[in-house]
Amino acid sequence: MYTVAVTGGAGLVGRYIVQRLLENEQIAEVRIIDRQTTSREESRRVKTYVIDLNDRKPLENALLGCDGVIHCAHAPFPIVYSKSKEQDDQMWKDNLDACEAVVDTMISMNIKNLVNIGCAYSPIPNEDNYGLAQDVFLDYPRNYMLDAYGESRTRGEMYARKAAKRGSVNGLFLRPTFVYGQGKSRKIESIKELVQNSTLPFVNGERRGMHQFIYAGNLAAIAEKSFFFLLQNPKKFNGEIIPENIINHVSFRLFFEKTVGFPNKKLRLLLDSKPEVSQEDAFVKYANPKSSYTMEAVKRSTIQG
C-alpha cells in the first residue's frame, strides 16, 4: 500500500490523477497539495494541504510518509501576455522555484519516486514546431517560443532531471501537449474568452489547426503507470522507458513524441496498453454540456485497470 502526493491536485490534470489513484486498491492515501482549495472532501484516503510549494516547512509536513510525488503544479499557460513584473516573478516561482522545492524536499526526506508532468511546448524554440523539435529534449534550446514561461518550466524540469541523473531521485518526465477534460481549465477558459471577444487570430491554410491533444483521463493513466514503473524497477525506468516487447530501449525523451496525438497503435506498442478513452469519445464527453467530471471512485485491483 502506497501514499502518493499530487502537487497541483486541484487543477484539471491533478484532479484526474487523484481520481485515478483513488480507484487503485494499491494506493492507501492520496495527498492533494495546492494553493487552491478543492471540492473533494477529505476522507481516510484523501488529505488536502492548501499551501504554497515554496513554503518548505509546510511542504515537508505534507510529504511526510509519502512513497512518491506526482508533480503537476505550474503557473497558468500564457494564453495572453503577463501584465506586470509581479506576474512574471510569480510565474518563475510557480514553475522553477516550486519544482526545486519539491525535489530538494524529496531528497532531504529520502522520497525517491517522482513523476513530473511537464509541457511539450515549453522547450520549443522560435520558428520550430513540436514534431520537429526532437533535438531540444535533452538540453536547453537556443531560445523559447513561449519566452519566459517556456524557459521557467524547462529549467524546473531540468533541475529534476539532474537530480535523477545523480540518483538522488528516480524520475519519469512526461511532456503532454494540450490537455483537455471535464471540469474547469484556466487554459481552455482563456481560449474561449479570446474567441468570444473575437481576439483570437485566424490563420489561413489547411494546416492551421494541427495541434495535438490528450484527454486528461488517459494522461492520468500514464502517470499512474509511470509511478508503478518506478516502484517496480527504478534502475530500469529512471529517466527513460524500456518497452518489454522490443530489444533496443527507447530513451524516455521520445516517449510523448511517439504517443501523444498519434495513432493509438503506437501508444499500445510503447506502453503495452490501450488508451481507455478514445480521442473521439473524449471529445464527445468534453463537448457535451450535460457531461460533468465525477469523483466517484471505482476500485481496481491492478494498475492496468
From TrEMBL:
Recorded superkingdom: Eukaryota
Alphabetical list of InterPro entries matching this protein: 3Beta_OHSteriod_DH/Estase, NAD(P)-bd_dom_sf
A GO BP entry: steroid biosynthetic process
A GO molecular-function annotation: oxidoreductase activity, acting on the CH-OH group of donors, NAD or NADP as acceptor
Pfam families found in the cross-reference section: 3Beta_HSD
Record-annotated 3-beta hydroxysteroid dehydrogenase/isomerase domain positions: 5-221
Keyword annotations of the record: Oxidoreductase
Stated family: Belongs to the 3-beta-HSD family.
PANTHER family: DTDP-D-GLUCOSE 4,6-DEHYDRATASE-RELATED
Protein name, as recorded: 3-beta hydroxysteroid dehydrogenase/isomerase domain-containing protein
Organism, as annotated: Caenorhabditis remanei
